[in-house]
Amino acid sequence: MADVTEARQGPGPAPAPVEIRIERVSKAFGSTQALAEVELGVRAGEFLSLIGPSGCGKTTLLKCIAGLVPVDAGRVAVGGRLVTGPGRECSLVFQDFALLPWATVQKNVEFGLLLRGVPAGERAGTARRWVGKVGLGGFEDAYPAQLSGGMQQRVGLARALAVNPQVLLMDEPFASIDEQTRRLFQDDLLGLWSEERKTVVLVTHSMDEAIYLSDRVAVLSPRPGRVHQLLEVPLPRPREVADVRATAEFARLVDGLWKILRKLQ
Amino acid sequence: MKIHTLRAASVGAFLLLWEWAARVPISFNFPSPGQTLAALGGLLVSGALLRATLVSLGSLVLGFGAAVALGVPFGLLMGVARPVGRVGRVYLDLLIALPTAALVPLVILSFGINVLSSAAIVFVFSAPFVAMNAYGGVRDVGPRLVEMARAFDASPAQLFARVVLPAALPMILAGIRYGLSRAFVGLIVAELLLSPFGLGRLIMLSRSMFEHDRMFATVLWTLLVAGAALAALGRLEQRLLRWRT
User: Fold this and answer.
1) Hey, what's the torsion of the CAs at A40, A46, A47, A53, to 10 degrees?
2) Residue A240 covered by a domain
3) B240 and chain A in contact, CB less than 8 A
4) For B68-114, how does the pLDDT look when each residue is reduced to its tens digit (9 = 90+)?
5) pTM as predicted
6) N or C: which end of chain B has fewer CB within 10 A?
């Protein structure tokens, strides 16, 4: 396992996607029980969304997978490795982008590679390639404050993917982005995902987004969060926002998800 | 362009006010702008002013240099190690609240009367502000950035060097700039009270000889030197923080 991790630093081929196993995971913050015995398996290469009422622990669960929040009970395993802290398997994309304001787009995308000791030349090349892949070619030397929210999140996505993780964890990545930008970005995300075949876990508030992007949607119950229901999304791939949203099948799936969520409120 | 015009106008207004103050008999021998500028020219030509300035700048560089060299690391340590911060800020608050001039006799007692004692007073005047801002800068680092770096499995050293330090830099630099203005205050207080050298001595000397034009010229010169130093530091700050615009 260790040498696999080493080999992933470079711009080489993407590593095989891995599965995530969440077994009887509980987590409390003080007297607030955030998660209660959560059971969830994410298949290798799957796009899974976590959705649920506000405060149901979606983000906490995501951070448990990332190793940022230690679990009180139960276990999380990514690709067979027990998660005990942040590791190299997972990359995170944040709702508020979490870009370094003093660093250019290029340097922001290089950040993860820099922390992992990738030599400067290779770092610059890999980052430049990813800046191009997320559609920001030409903006390498811009600072985050000079970019729109959508562009900033593209930087966040490029930074996450540049380290070539096996798992991409996204915490409401489109929540602070306007609707038009969001739809284009979602298509680009699906395009990148079909090339890279990473395991993706997406936390979202949007039912449309969950249905459109995911293979499966995990609906969490209100606090303390546990998986209330797993919903399969049998929409064919590749998907395009404009086409998929117009279908009766899409409407039926969103309606089904809404009926589940409404009962939970 | 507009701001330059406004600044020039404010200087002009100040000179007019000064001229007026010199004409109405506010006090005996109140020097006019013209007299003051003439005295300034005389002092510059004789070399007395430059010699005094060099002596003063010696104390300033020594005291303020030490304030930055020790204050910034101490402030950073306070920010990183919470217990040090909790204890340290009590002392800093005291030093900031204290009328610092009250420490001058103590400094004379410890160092005697020499360049080192002026430097010590400059240090006491400026270091608390430098340290306090560095401390505040570290405490204000966005928790999301820290979390982001942690998610990339950053080591504590990486977290400090790549996130905490650059995030705190704007406040550190603001503290240094404010510390410099405090350092000039400390310098003149020290020299007025200790007296044997520098710009402060020149001010006291002129006063005792009733050469009020020379006294004013020295004060004006001190303002110019301090203003130039602050402006230079401000420009350096802007260059280092280009990303903010």
Assistant:
1) -10
2) yes
3) no
4) 999 999 999 999 998 999 999 999 988 888 887 788 888 888 887 77
5) 0.84
6) N
